[in-house]
Amino acid sequence: MPKKLTKGFQKGDIRPFLVEGEQVGLVKADVIKQLQRYPEIFCIRNCEFTKQGIVELNPAFRDYAERTKQVDIVLRDLRSKGIFSALQGWRDEYYEVKSEYRSLLKMDRSATPLFGVRKYGVDINGYVQHPTQGLCIWLQQRSNTKETWPGKWDNMVGGGLSVGYGIKETAIKEAAEEASIPSDLVKNLVSAGCVSFFFESEQGLFPNTEYVFDLELPLDFVPQNADGEVQAFELLPAKECVERVFTPDFKTTSCPVVIDFLIRHGYITPENEVHFTQIIELLHVPLQSLYTYKSVLEQKQKLKQQNQSQQQSHLANNIKTIENGHNNKDATINN
Amino acid sequence: MPKKLTKGFQKGDIRPFLVEGEQVGLVKADVIKQLQRYPEIFCIRNCEFTKQGIVELNPAFRDYAERTKQVDIVLRDLRSKGIFSALQGWRDEYYEVKSEYRSLLKMDRSATPLFGVRKYGVDINGYVQHPTQGLCIWLQQRSNTKETWPGKWDNMVGGGLSVGYGIKETAIKEAAEEASIPSDLVKNLVSAGCVSFFFESEQGLFPNTEYVFDLELPLDFVPQNADGEVQAFELLPAKECVERVFTPDFKTTSCPVVIDFLIRHGYITPENEVHFTQIIELLHVPLQSLYTYKSVLEQKQKLKQQNQSQQQSHLANNIKTIENGHNNKDATINN
């Protein structure tokens, strides 16, 4: 799926990033090298239980606010040194860094690929059922001045999930900003699932999950950009849309959303696509399986405790045997 | 997801089942024990490259027909001995046993769980958009005389993919047999993807992929069974459908289809379901990752060849060094 894979994703290259004992990211060797300069903020060591190299945020930091502040200091310093191209896209827009159930800190969105933090976004598939052309899909062409993927074709509406905004709320906000979709149309938005994929580029790691929404639009509606982030909209019949998706002019990380849409709406079928089931599996890669450090650790610790208690009970048995052998007389005497 | 997990799925318990060098299944220890009685048909050994225990169909069998015949002999013998309860549900209905790109043999559907063969089926979500009750879903109650899951609630229409039938063809056939859906309605069938899951019961292993179809029905249409396999149909509002799915009265392996439908149609959303992304990942488990024996083997063989050629070139270098040391004079003489 990734069009632009600068280097193979090799297990040994990448270490879990831990905050408060929970894995929230994946850090590659080039980033680790830089983080070593900040030993008061990042601890880089081998885990005594898993024997695995880990990158840990200093556990002395008290809370969400302090963790956010300390990481931000490092990121701004790295940015000023011009080390990572990713940080040149600094946004002053924060993404949550979350474990399974809680937010642990927030981080500028430009930095999340350096830490392999799971990124969440929303996408709206705007479509019409055309009387002669059948299923047609609205695409946007991104502005040439956008930080990421300038000039590329993309879904009608999309955006990252920033701190403080809900999922549907983000979809509605982006629908207004990017495509001027009025509230009487946006009320027809249908939540339709999510796609998950893992993308790697020179910017870093993108373990992305996109919440997808479908929006059927009237034939006469034409999206209009309101925030300067879109240079054009185009309505394409499904067939042409598929062709566009497979050109280099399409934003790579938006392809899964279109493909998922075309599968759910009966355009790509098991009859016309020989890799149908494999594609659907790849549109939903189990990203959660990449963030399992804590559960592995707990298993290892449990095993060690079991071994210890077995050894102790073995020792206790030995002692008992010795006592039975050597102290029987004393016992008899004491009785 | 599985309601009925008789025993944990442990890696070490299960061996790849190979036909013509390609992994097509997974075999548990209790089945291996029985297959050992048929050494001319099944070879149970350790792979010299992967060091893994494997179950292999005798590679001497020439073709699809002979492989099918030989396996059938074993299955009928095991059935007559009453060893596996799965085989008591013998159907005289064949499923394909396929590697990624080709069919290698066919096997009675009752036996496929014993060999952990990937099973494919179709399911139709029949639904109506009710003016007052909103999204409503047709469910069927299976006949009490069905071999599998008698009396359980199930999707409106469903069935396994038998040898000789296409995917959409099976959906249309089952729609007629199970629910008497006429051709003018069935033409609205929309292919909507697939769900994949791994289920284990006392019958064996079920690495299942269900191709799902949606069918919006008119408000006044009532399904009628035609083949005696259904005892009732009921139209339930989405909310009650979810409740039904989580009772023991619902066929476990049909739950993923309903949940996927409710996600795709905006009833289960990231707003009302905290485990939204995890559930979607679990509805699409990467089953293909369980059938990787051939690629692992090829990797190991390649590695061995590389090592050998390195050793050979090392040896060649040594010989050259020796020749340079010892034979220089001879060379000079010969010159």
Describe this structure in words.
The structure is a homodimer of 335-residue chains. Chain A is α+β, with helices and mostly antiparallel strands and 335 residues long. Chain A folds into two domains: 13-114, Transcription Regulator spoIIAA; 119-290, Nucleoside Triphosphate Pyrophosphohydrolase. Chain A is 32% helix and 28% strand. Chain A is built from nine helices and 13 strands. Chain A has helices spanning 29-35, 64-81, 167-179, 183-186, 238-245, 255-264, 276-282, 293-326, 328-334, and strands at 14-19, 22-28, 42-46, 53-57, 94-98, 103-108, 119-130, 134-142, 153-155, 157-160, 190-201, 204-216, 230-237. In chain A, strands 7, 8, 9, 10, 11, 12 and 13 form a seven-stranded mixed beta sheet that branches. In chain A, a hairpin with a 4-residue loop joins strand 5 and strand 6. In chain A, helix 5 (238-245) runs antiparallel to helix 6 (255-264). Chain A binds chain B through residues 166-168, 190-194, 196, 209, 211, 263-266, 269-271, 276-278, 280-281, 283-288, and chain B through 166-168, 190-194, 196, 209, 211, 263-266, 269-271, 276-278, 280-281, 283-288. Chains A, B: Residues 304-335 are annotated as: Disordered. Chains A, B: Residues 119-260 form the Nudix hydrolase domain. Chains A, B: InterPro entries: DUF4743, NUDIX_hydrolase-like_dom_sf, NUDIX_hydrolase_dom. Chains A, B: Residues 313-335 have a biased composition (Polar residues). Chains A, B: Pfam families: DUF4743, NUDIX.
